[in-house]
Write a structure and sequence with these properties.
Aspartate Aminotransferase, domain 1; seven-stranded mixed β-sheet; binds pyridoxal-5'-phosphate; alpha/beta; about 35% helix; single chain
Length: about 475
Amino acid sequence: MKKILQQKDRDFIWHPYTQMKDFEQRDLLLVDRAEGIFLYDHEGRRYYDTISSWWCVMHGHNHPVIKEAVKKQLDRLEQVHFAATTHEGAIRLGEYLVSITPPVLSKVFFSDNGSTANEVALKMSFQYRIIKGDEQRSRFVSLERGYHGDTIGTISLGGVPAFEGPFKPLTFDSYRIPAPYCYRCPMGCEAPSKSTWDDVSQGPFSTLNCSLECLNPFRKLLAEKGGSITALILEPLLMGAGGIIVYPAEYLREIAAMCRQHDIHLIFDEVATGFGRTGTMFALEQAGIVPDFLCLSKGLTGGYLPLAATITTDEIYNAYYADYAEGRTFFHGHTFTANPLGCAAALGSAKVFAEEEVLNKLPYKITALQKGKERMTELPHVGDVRGTGMAAAFELVRDRKTKAPFESDLRVGWQVYLQGLENGLILRPLGDVTYLFPPLCTEPDAIEDILQKTEKTLRQVFERL
Ligand SMILES: Cc1ncc(COP(=O)(O)O)c(C=O)c1O
């Protein structure tokens, strides 16, 4: 049966982010079921879901509370169009999201994935300027190594060349500024010492021993073209797909202040960081910054169903609020906008956050991961070890001294992935960055086991190089 399914997969399916020829001789991992922090294959072999099934399964698989919420909803209402109808789940979820985000974020626009959550924010900001008679503000700013999705709009603001690939001619012009990538500082500076980064527990303050020169290009851009910019989009504190790049809250505070000064909207893409990943419900809390748009997806439903939200301010919303004839309607929507099953899953996840005190129980797990990850600094080809909250990453390099990367045809990250499977881990790489993004429910003993198996995997791969 297993072999038949795997062959039918080859016959009928085209997988995302996958060169299918890699599976000409090799089988894809056929997942049969999942429980807690484990995936199981058809032979009952288990694998730690160390990437939370693409960063979204926050409370583990098969959680009874979320399952029950979805089952109940299934008996009541599974789908309804959301243009001029509404339903209880969406209303309750909207109220919940407004209650857990900063007070000025007051209006929730639903969609169904992270790319659309961001796309909505871009379009809202753009149309807002037209409504306000400020059409010259039509350009966006984003960060190199930033990632905001795979639609043409979001790749226009992406900073990962591999994802933009052949599609560049289809994208619209925007401004790109350097990423606060401390390991490979774009300004050639030393990485600031971690001890000077903000301590979340003490609230926002600044002791950073870095002058954030990487913001100078943005300063220059503002001086020359500030009046043409409508919004800046970024992933706060943790840039995910660009290589799990972690940066200090101080950077966020500075860039936010610069945007405010120049009347530029701030779009926080918390698709990956939202719902506890960085240790607080949202990363923005650690910098004390309130954006004009907050984009959420992935962990919103605890990873059980596709759903997304773009949350914005009364100021933006009110600009659109007018008699129909004035032409200010926001013409954007998706078939499954605010899907009732998705909303039920999200409310189920909210219940888990509250009942299981998920955020209060995070610090000891975070300590286990962040302290435990440091052992990798001893390994020969680990150039950088970084992390925040429940995320840790190991950048693998040919030469630690020069930081020279491996030759791309070696596909070291891919080798780590394949070896990880042998050791019961899903270590899906980002190029040559191996990372851990475990569910928030992962306890310290499991974290320790994952780290030991990761170390073993890396050593095995390095021995073969
Ligand atoms: C920060 C960020 N934004 C947007 C997206 C796109 O989300 P989706 O894959 O649901 O379209 C991702 C996905 O990894 C992400 O990490």
